[in-house]
Each structure stands twice: as structure tokens, then as C-alpha cells.
Q: What sequence folds into this?
């Protein structure tokens, strides 16, 4: 699965997610990616999220929506909400996943309970990226 | 607010030999998306372009490089959402189209949120999307190997989604979980 979240200087947010699914899936299987609230959600008033991982788990937890509701109602920042939601989902449903989030202030959240998740973002002249847990590398662009 | 373009290239037990290719791909996608945002000022354009970049890259499970069904076919899905209007475009069971994310964006122009199956393929044709002929051009050798590895595991009687392994593909190093 691949995904992207963007915010502009006016606070407009958009999210996109695309996938081939899961190896060995039955023909006709639908996962989380095309489901609003599971694989993708965007609301300028709160933020935007794209998710990836075990689709059957993500859709049962409505992961993208859950992250944004933590920001909206619990006052968590993007990173905290993304971490807490992914962990709570895996604790409850076992399946692993990851998510990327930008909140309405432009703060970034990146977290995953899977072994690895490739991610990158550009803010100003900084390109930050990683794939392992707690890996944050940086380049100037 | 400082503009940001943030991307991911999938989560799971990514094999070590795929790490470098994934990192190159996500860095490129972030750059492509950010350049598009600067060019057009549109966050929708930015996320679509970033995802299109990864749909072209066989290191990712989307577009060219998508994983396979039990029948050996590619069935893709995508969604896109505008946080300003809350309009969304979603598609599923998409076959033989290079960029499902662009098809999802086109669905935003309909009165509906979500099209799938035969209907979305008809919609794609009407909207002028190229439906690749002959079919199967999105299937990579790596995806075939991953499916064979997965089938071999099934033949050996392993239960892929045993409780402790949901979301993990470590018995099938080439497979992806979505």
C-alpha cells in the first residue's frame, strides 16, 4: 500500500491511498484502502490520515477516523494520536498497521506497529525519512 | 502553516533486500508531491502525484508491482479525500489500469463516493483511462514469486493468519499484507 497526505499554507488538507491488497487474497476481497475512515480521511478542521497494514484489522478499527477523533476530542497531537491509535488497535485486534498524519496545524505524525514502514516527508528544505522503528534520517533538499 | 507533503510506502515485514528500494521510492514520491504542490498550489494534485509516483514503482504494492490474488490476478483499490469539501473518491476491484488513484479522483466528480467491480471498469473506459490489453501487464515476477511462496505455505498446511501473526508476513518473505 502507498499513501500521501498534504497540507498547504492555508491549511487545506488532502489524502490519497492506493494498494494491490494482500498476497493470496480471494478474488473480490476489499480491504481498508478504499474505505473512507479506514484507509483514508481528511478534514481541514482536524487533519488528514493515510493508513497501511493488515486491512481486515484496520477496517474493523476505522483507524484513520480513530486517529483524527483522538486529535479532535482528546487534544492529542498528531504524533501521539497516531502512536496511541496504532498501538490500541494492535492490542485490541492483534493485527499490525501503520499510519501517517498531518494535523490542522501542520504537525506530522508517523507510527507503525508492523516491523517496518517506509515513510518520507518534505517541510521547507528538509526531507525526513525512515523505515525502521525510531529511524529518522534527514537531508536538505 | 508551512506546507508539508508526507508519504508512506507500506507497512509490514519488509524484507531487508527491499529496504533501499522502498526508501528511494518514498523520498522520490515526497519530492514529486512537493514539487506538484509548489507548481499548482493544490494539495489534491500533490497527493495524487505522490501516489502515482509509487504506483509506477515495482518496489511498492500498488499499480505496477501490486500483489496477486489466489488466481494470480491484480485487483487494486484506491481512495482520495479533500479535507476542504469532505468530498471523497474511492474505487475497488480495479484491473489493468496503471493509476487507480487517478481513477479514484475521477470518481469525486460523480454524485457517489465509491465505485467498484464491473461498474468502475465501465466508468474508467468512459472516462478515457487506458485499460491495458492484453491483461496482466501489472503482474511482476516478484509478485508471482510471492504468490508461489504463499501457496507453498498453504500446501504445507501453515495457517497464514494465525493469531500471533496477523499483519506479519515473516513466513512468506516476499508477500505483503496491504
A:
Amino acid at each position: 500500500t502507498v499513501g500521501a497526505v498534504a497540507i498547504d499554507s492555508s491549511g487545506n488538507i488532502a489524502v490519497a491511498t492506493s494498494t494491490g491488497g494482500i498476497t493470496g487474497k480471494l478474488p473480490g476481497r476489499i480491504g481498508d484502502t478504499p474505505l473512507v475512515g479506514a484507509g483514508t480521511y481528511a478534514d481541514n478542521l482536524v487533519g488528514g490520515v493515510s493508513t497501511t497494514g493488515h486491512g481486515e484489522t484496520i477496517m474493523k478499527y476505522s483507524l484513520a477516523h480513530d486517529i483524527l477523533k483522538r486529535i479532535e476530542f482528546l487534544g492529542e497531537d498528531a504524533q501521539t494520536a497516531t502512536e496511541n491509535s496504532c498501538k490500541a488497535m494492535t492490542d485490541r485486534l492483534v493485527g499490525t498497521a501503520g499510519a501517517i498524519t498531518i494535523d490542522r496545524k501542520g504537525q506530522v505524525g508517523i507510527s507503525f506497529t508492523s516491523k517496518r514502514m517506509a515513510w518520507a516527508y518534505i517541510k521547507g528544505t528538509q526531507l525526513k525519512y525512515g523505515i525502521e522503528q525510531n529511524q529518522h534520517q534527514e537531508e536538505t533538499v | 502553516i508551512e506546507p508539508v507533503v508526507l508519504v508512506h510506502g507500506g507497512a509490514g515485514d519488509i524484507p531487508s533486500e527491499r529496504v533501499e528500494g522502498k526508501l528511494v521510492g518514498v523520498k522520490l514520491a515526497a519530492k514529486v508531491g512537493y514539487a506538484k504542490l509548489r507548481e499548482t498550489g493544490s494539495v489534491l494534485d500533490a497527493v495524487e502525484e505522490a501516489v502515482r509516483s509509487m504506483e509506477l514503482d515495482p518496489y511498492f504494492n500498488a499499480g505496477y508491482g501490486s500483489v496477486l490474488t489466489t488466481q494470480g490476478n491484480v485487483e487494486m483499490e484506491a481512495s482520495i479525500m479533500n479535507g476542504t469539501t469532505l468530498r471523497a473518491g474511492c474505487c475497488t476491484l480495479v484491473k489493468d489500469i496503471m493509476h487507480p488513484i487517478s481513477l479514484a479522483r475521477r470518481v469525486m466528480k460523480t454524485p457517489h463516493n465509491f465505485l467498484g467491480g464491473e461498474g468502475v471498469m465501465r466508468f474508467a473506459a468512459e472516462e478515457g483511462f487506458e485499460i491495458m490489453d492484453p491483461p496482466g501487464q501489472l503482474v511482476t515476477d516478484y509478485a508471482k514469486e510471492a504468490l508461489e511462496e504463499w501457496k507453498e505455505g498453504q500446501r504445507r498446511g501453515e495457517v497464514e493468519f494465525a493469531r500471533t501473526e496477523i499483519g506479519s508476513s515473516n513466513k512468506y518473505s516476499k508477500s505483503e499484507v496491504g
Q: What stands out?
A: Helices of chain B lie at 16-40, 43-55, 100-107, 117-126, 141-155. Residues 16-40 of chain B form the longest helix (25 residues). Residues 160-166 of chain B have pLDDT under 50 and may be disordered. The two ends of chain B are 32 Å apart (CA to CA).
